[in-house]
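dumping this here so i dont lose it
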């Protein structure tokens, strides 16, 4: 469908994922204008739309495992509920499946790569799979983080960002923040979280050098 809406995609207000279309607007009048443009092109190419699957004019929607609004991006709790009810992984395949799922939401999870370090380690081919107490705690901590993850602010590219960095022996964690006006009050919050494990050559560095 990208070939049908090249202009709309380049303008940045249309999102297409497989056969789903999302239209984003700052005002109701602009939204109606953009909706008309999209529907006109849909009619031009004889594309069919299922009305029962459509939602029009919502301030918040669920898409790709997230809850998205004009102000924030959060995790859709319904998408993580089934995974959180599963027992502790019993083998590498189950652990890799869990880590892959959790990693999809890593921008919402503070220090994800650092917390998950011991869990990634037991997925190595040369490592025996053993859920030690430390690894169970890491697993439970990630599950808890998925249910309590902060809402991320939608970035405003016209105002400054603040970058907070924290280094430790296991890795590097970063939080990108902004102060935005919400309900007429300046509010600081995260835009995204970034983390990574330290490389072997970095293990000898001090925290200020990582």
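and the seq i came up w/
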């Amino acid at each position: 469908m990208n070939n049908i809406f090249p202009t709309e995609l380049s303008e940045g207000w249309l999102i297409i994922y497989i056969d789903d279309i999302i239209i984003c607007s700052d005002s109701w009048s602009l939204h109606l204008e953009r909706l008309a443009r999209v529907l006109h092109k849909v009619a031009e190419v004889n594309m069919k739309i299922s009305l029962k699957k459509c939602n029009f004019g919502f301030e918040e929607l669920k898409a790709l495992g997230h809850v998205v609004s004009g102000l924030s991006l959060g995790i859709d709790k319904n998408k993580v509920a089934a995974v959180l009810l599963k027992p502790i992984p019993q083998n590498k395949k189950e652990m890799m499946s869990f880590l892959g799922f959790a990693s999809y939401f890593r921008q919402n999870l503070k220090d994800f790569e650092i917390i998950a370090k011991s869990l990634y380690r037991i997925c190595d081919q040369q490592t025996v799979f053993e859920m030690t107490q430390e690894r169970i705690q890491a697993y439970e901590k990630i599950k808890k983080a998925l249910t309590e993850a902060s809402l991320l602010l939608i970035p405003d590219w016209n105002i400054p960002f603040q970058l907070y960095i924290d280094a430790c022996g296991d890795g590097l964690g970063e939080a990108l923040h902004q102060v935005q006006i919400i309900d007429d009050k300046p509010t600081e919050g995260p835009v995204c979280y970034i983390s990574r494990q330290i490389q072997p050559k970095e293990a000898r560095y001090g925290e200020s050098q990582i």
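The mean pLDDT is 91.
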